[in-house]
Amino acid sequence: MIGQTFDAIVVGAGPSGNAAAYVMAKEGLKVLQLERGEYPGSKNVQGAILYADALRQIIPDFHEDAPLERHVIEQRLWTMDDRSHVGMHYRSDDFNEERPNRYTIIRAEFDKWFSRKVRAAGVTLLCETTVTDLLRDADGRVTGVRTDRGGGTAFADVVILAEGVNGLVGRRAGLRGDPAPEQVALAVKEMHFLPRDIIENRFNLRGGEGVVIEAMGTITAGMTGTGFLYTNQESLSIGIGCLVSDFADSPMTPYGLLEAFKNHPSIRPLLAQSECKEYAAHLIPEGGYRAIPELVGDGWIVVGDAGQFVNAVHREGSNLAMTTGRLAAETVVALKRRGDKATAFHLADYKRRLEETFVMKDLRKYKGIPSFLHGNKQIFGLYPRLFSAAAQTWLRVDGTDKRTKEKEILASFRKGRTLPGLIGDAVKLARAWR
Ligand SMILES: Cc1cc2nc3c(=O)[nH]c(=O)nc-3n(C[C@H](O)[C@H](O)[C@H](O)COP(=O)(O)OP(=O)(O)OC[C@H]3O[C@@H](n4cnc5c(N)ncnc54)[C@H](O)[C@@H]3O)c2cc1C
C-alpha cells in the first residue's frame, strides 16, 4: 500500500478519522487510513458518552451491532466541597426510547467496531504505522505522507488530519502552533469493575439503563477542571481533568487528584467493592472557538481534536469529531464529483458546511467560557463551599427560624465574595455564556 496513490489519506483511526474514511469509501473513493496504535482504539481514551445523533448520521443502524454499554436515562450534575455535594439530577423514562440519544461506551471496543465498518466499506487500514511528515510538491501543496514504515511514503489528492489533540504531524508541518497550556486539559481515568446487579441496585437502574455524573468544585483543588463517573454494564468509568497550565502551578498531581476524588464521601460508596483494572491519561483540547487553527490548505483538512473541536461546557468531543470527519469527507466527495482539485479554495467548502452545524454554533456561543473559567477560580472553590454551607444551613432543623436562616445564607455569600464581587461574577458569566 505504501508507495501507492489514493484519493484520500486519513491520519488516525479515532472517531473523526473513522467517520471521514467511512463516508469517503462508501461514496467509492480509494482511501488509505494510517493508525499508529496496534489496533484502532488502543491509544484512545474517553469518558465515555457516545452521542448517538452524530453516529446515526453516518451509520443509521449502528445500534444493531455496536458495542454499547448503557443508554443514559439520568444525568447528575454535582457541585462538590470537601465533604458534601449539591446536586441537580434529571432522570426521565422518556430516555428509555427505541433509539436512545446517549450511550456509555468503552472506546477500545467501540473504535474496533467502527474500524470494522470502515474496512468493510473498502478502506485500506494500516495499523502500527505512524505518519511522520507531510509530503509537498514544489508549490507547497500537500501530496501525501511519510511514515515510519521504513520511511515509506503514500500519495493522495487530499490528506485528512484526524490525528487527535497532539496533532504532531500538523504541528511539524507548520500548519498550526503548539496548543497553549491553558487551552489543554490533562485527564486521568480508571475503570472499576463490579457485577452488573450491584451497579443496577446502587444506581437504581434496570436492564440497559445508565447514569452519568458530572462534578466540579473543590475536587480540582482550585484548578479549572471537572470530574466524572459513568455507569457501564459491568464497570464504572471515573476520571478527573484540569488545565495543563494549572497543573504546572499546583503541587497536586493528576493521580493524587483522582485518588482524592475517589475517596470523597459522595463518591467512595459508589465504588465500594469494585476492582480497578485499567488506568489511562489523555489530553483534551479545551480552548474552544478561539483556539481553532486554520482548518484547510492546499491538499489538507483538519478534523476532530486536532482542530480543537471539543465543547468542554457540555463535555462533548466524539460527536464533534464524527461530525467534522463526516463533513470533511462530504466536501472531498463533492469536489471529486465536480472534478475540482483539493485546493484551499475548494476545501474551504468544509468551513462553510461547519458553520451551518451545531459544531460552530455551539463553540462560538461559548467562546468566552474558557477564559472565564481560567480567570475565575472562585467557581471551583469558593462558590461550591458557599452552596454547600447554604444547603446545610437551610436543611438543618435546629430551632432557628427560616427568615434568620435566609439572612445567614445571604450574609455568608456577601462575606465570601462581597456584593460587587457577586454581581461582577454573574455579569461575567452571563457575558461568556451568550
Ligand atoms: C478522559 C476523557 C473523557 C472524555 N469524555 C468524553 C465523552 O464522554 N464524550 C465525548 O463525546 N467526548 C469525550 N472526550 C473527548 C473525545 O475523546 C475526543 O473528542 C475524541 O476522541 C476525538 O476524536 P479524534 O478522532 O479527533 O481523536 P482521537 O480519538 O484522539 O484519535 C486520534 C487517532 O489518531 C492516531 N494518531 C495520532 N497521531 C498519529 C500519527 N502521526 N500517525 C498515525 N496515527 C496517529 C491516534 O493513535 C488515535 O487513534 C473525552 C476525552 C478524554 C481524554
Give structural notes:
This protein is of the alpha/beta class and 434 residues long. It folds into 3 domains: 5-67 and 106-176 and 293-356, FAD/NAD(P)-binding domain (3-Layer(bba) Sandwich); 182-285, 2-Layer Sandwich (D-Amino Acid Oxidase, Chain A, domain 2), CATH 3.30.9; 370-433, no CATH class. Helix content is 35%, strand content 26%. It contains 16 helices and 17 strands. Strands 3, 4, 5, 6, 11, 12, 13, 14 and 15 form a 9-stranded mixed β-sheet that branches. Strand 8 and strand 9 (142-147) form a beta hairpin. Helix 9 packs across helix 11 (349-355). The longest helix has 21 residues, at 318-338. The protein is globular. The termini are far apart. The mean pLDDT is 95. The structure holds flavin-adenine dinucleotide (FAD). Flavin-adenine dinucleotide is lined by residues 11-17, 34-37, 43-49, 51, 130-131, 162-164, 168-169, 187, 189, 239, 241, 282, 284, 304-305, 310, 315-319, 321.
The total tally of domains equals 3
The helix count comes to 16
Strand content range: 25-35%
Q: Which stretches are poorly predicted, pLDDT < 50 over at least 5 residues?
A: none
Ligand types = flavin-adenine dinucleotide
Q: What percentage of residues falls in helices of 4 or more residues?
A: 25-40%
The largest sheet is:
9 strands, mixed
Indicate the multimeric state.
single chain
Q: What is CATH's topology name of the largest domain?
A: FAD/NAD(P)-binding domain
Question: CATH class of the largest domain, please?
Answer: Alpha Beta
Give a short summary of the structure.
By secondary structure, the protein is of the alpha/beta class.
